[in-house]
Design goal:
The structure is a homodimer.
Chain A: E1 4-9, H1 18-37, E2 41-46, H2 49-65, H3 74-99, E3 106-108, E4 112-114, E5 127-133, H4 135-143, E6 147-150, E7 156-160, E8 167-168, H5 171-179, E9 183-185, E10 192-196, E11 202-204, H6 211-221, E12 226-231, E13 236-238, E14 246-248, E15 250-251, H7 253-261, H8 270-283, E16 288-293, H9 297-301, E17 307-309
Parallel strand pairs in A: 1-2, 1-12, 2-9, 3-9, 4-10, 12-16, 15-17
Antiparallel strand pairs in A: 4-8, 5-7, 6-7, 10-11, 13-14, 16-17
Helix pairs in contact in A: 1-3, 2-3, 6-8, 7-8
Chain lengths: 311, 311
């Protein structure tokens, strides 16, 4: 009996530009179809850091050269990135499925995700996006009302808020397609961030939602059996890079929270993955989250590798 | 008993840039929800001329400034435009539905449409896209392998092929959602043009598919009851702008073809709309296509206005 699985894809699943993405999605599709071939129903959530940065830079350059085009808000850039990434990914999945004799619809659902307009993240834009700038360019960007930050000695970048996802606007659509046995790509880039703004209106937010948190929320909302966070390491480690480094096969949510409180996991990298896994595992007894290498998805779901988080 | 209707939206439904689009979709949503409120199930196809042009220009500018980003193919630009337009349109539809107390899922389906790699259109790129250029800029564009043309005295533009749509890759997804009563935005910009390229691979084509032809194919493929082509005029005219101008209430496919052969309809404007209407009306007895003003959709489907095409 197959499981309903939500897969969160890390940055290594997509590459950083057009030719890299076209190559990377082939490999990614193999890992995902491995799970479908075993009878599971799969929804895929992907990140969009480099892609939304590229699109944001392109649209900003356009608006500088042609003032009839105002700056594109981050919500619009995320919508474009869902189209850009979804196209390559759904195409690669379709091909890999057909190559294995599997006939399944593959769909990319343009997804809006509601955030709280009062989320404290809006007071503290922390997620770097787009190209590196000189300090002078950053100052100009700041003058135009954008937050900027120095990014780990590599230069200045624009940064945006990263609020928590509250609900998935297109959930019914995603569920309908999964129920029909289709493969669904949804909540791309964490979803287009929107917040209620008078009556039934949803307004785009100048933000980017963490895709692992969005994947955990999607898994919860769909009552999925498992959340698999695919990344560039096979297992989660504590004391990472030290002499007493230890790979973990399993954590309870309480153990994971304790490690997180010790600062064991890098913010913006392993920390949101572990916290997303905890969130899903805690949401109902019997739910399991797994963090493992993209290429180990099949072995991971069979219990042979990766780090699982469950109560 | 409600009908299954495919709606093709003309350029006036979306505007030409970000703020225009945000305003235009409100009006467009009202016209579409008028039809849903009467119990019809609706799939919406929209154009993307100005939008894909804007995105193509932005991506071209980026690749000029940062050579790590190669030029984005037209297929990728169309995928981005489906995200950009679908986001605003689905949001406006959702709000208008809720404002009228209607609970329906609204989904944008990233759609690939197969074309024939041997379509003669590829030998004769005829569809102008993107910003106007000087003759010198056009020459430079041509040197980089793109087709360019002088556009009606307004300057030079890049132009791409406009092949005929053959089949809709994500048809099952669209049908599943319509069967579930959802409102579906699909084949945006005529669909992402792809063609079979060895095994099960689909390759993006440097082309833009006419959205009216794509809408006719979608209507046919879904066995829709009606195709409604919404545009900037209430009815189709013959002898347009002359002393003997005549508005048409109805044409048979044969009459429409005869008018088209006389050169009554402007290529790139009314001609593809009339030919798409003919194509759908001819595809099975009882099928009706309607061409009318965006704001007259409801009256049109009630038989009170517009130009209908049926056998």
């Amino acid at each position: 009996m197959g499981k309903r699985i939500v897969i969160a894809l890390g940055g290594n699943a997509l590459g950083r530009n057009l030719p890299e993405q076209m190559a990377a999605v082939k490999n990614t599709a193999k890992a995902i179809v491995d799970l479908i071939e075993e009878g599971n129903t799969v929804a895929v959530v992907h990140g969009n850091g480099p892609q939304v940065g590229m699109i944001n830079t392109a649209m900003t350059t356009l608006s500088r050269e042609d003032p009839t085009h105002p700056m594109a808000p981050m919500s619009v850039c995320t919508a474009m990135s869902q189209g850009y990434i979804g196209y390559d990914l759904q195409n690669a999945l379709r091909e890999e499925l057909l190559d294995r004799g599997l006939r399944r619809g593959v769909a990319t659902i343009l997804t809006q995700v509601e955030v709280d307009a009062d989320d404290p993240a809006f007071q503290n834009p922390s997620k770097p996006i787009g190209a590196f700038m000189t300090e002078a360019e950053a100052e100009e960007m700041r003058r135009r009302g954008n937050a900027v930050m120095e990014d780990a000695g590599r230069g200045w970048r624009r940064c945006v808020a990263s609020p928590l996802p509250k609900s998935i606007v297109e959930l019914d659509t995603i569920r309908t397609l999964l129920d029909a046995g289709q493969v669904v790509i949804a909540c791309g880039g964490g979803g287009i961030p929107v917040y209620p703004s008078g009556g039934n209106h949803l307004k785009g937010a100048g933000a980017v939602i963490d895709k692992d948190f969005a994947a955990a929320l999607l898994a919860q909302s769909l009552s999925a059996d498992a959340l698999i966070i695919l990344t560039a390491v096979e297992k989660v480690a504590v004391n990472f890079g030290k002499s007493d480094q230890r790979w973990l096969d399993h954590m309870t949510p309480a153990e994971a929270r304790a490690f997180a409180a010790e600062g064991q996991f890098a913010p913006g990298s392993m920390l949101p993955k572990v916290l997303s896994a905890v969130k899903f595992a805690e949401s109902r007894p019997g739910r399991t989250a797994l963090i493992t290498l993209l290429e180990k998805a099949r072995a991971g779901i069979a219990g042979q590798t990766g780090t699982s988080v469950s109560a």
